[in-house]
Amino acid sequence: MANEEFRGETGAERRRYPRIPIKLQVSYKCIEKGIISKPEAYLAEDLGAGGLAMRSSRCLDLGQMLMLSLFLPPADAEGTDKDLNVFTEEECVTVGILSRVAWSTSFREGGYLIGLQFLDLDRDDRRRLKDFLTNFQLDEPDSSLYT
């Protein structure tokens, strides 16, 4: 897929944590001027301890604040496949993360790839995410898995 436009700041040299390609259900709500939008569901394309990239049918502004929900598969499914969107939301553990749009790329075919930076999550959700990533051996800063 060819890029039509690139906006924002990204790159492995700016990442503290590695990311790997992984299909994972996510949804988000935009937060703007105290108003929270309806949730929109998409798929993550990659995931790391500090952020993710997801496909979106609409462009999001750089710096846009989002309340992101990650749907992590059951513990016994981790590490079995990188396409984890086969699980229903009810089967998954939901992790809520305050995020911001760090970059956006549009595709000629339509749609966008959006990079999100994780800003804040509570202690329990941080542990859930760390445990999930540890099972994929991704929770190591300065790993060779940068993308």
The poorly predicted ranges are 1-13, 138-147
CATH C-level label: Mainly Beta
Known CATH architecture: Beta Barrel
What is the number of E strands? 8
Strand order of the largest sheet: 2-4-5-8-7-6
Can you tell me about this structure?
A six-stranded antiparallel beta barrel has the order 2-4-5-8-7-6. The protein has a single domain (3-135), classed as predicted glycosyltransferase like domains (Thrombin, subunit H), CATH 2.40.10.220. It starts with a strand and ends in a 12-residue tail after the last helix. Strand 7 (93-107) and strand 8 (112-120) form a beta hairpin. Residues 1-13 and 138-147 have low confidence and may be disordered. 9% of the residues lie in helices and 46% in strands. It is mainly beta and 147 residues long. The chain is globular, with a radius of gyration of 15 Å. It contains one helix and eight strands.
Write the layout of secondary structure elements.
Layout: E1 3-8, E2 20-32, E3 35-36, E4 40-48, E5 51-56, E6 65-72, E7 93-107, E8 112-120, H1 123-135
Antiparallel strand pairs: 1-7, 2-3, 2-4, 2-6, 4-5, 5-8, 6-7, 7-8
Give me some keywords for this one.
147 residues, mainly beta, Thrombin, subunit H, six-stranded antiparallel beta barrel, globular, disordered C terminus
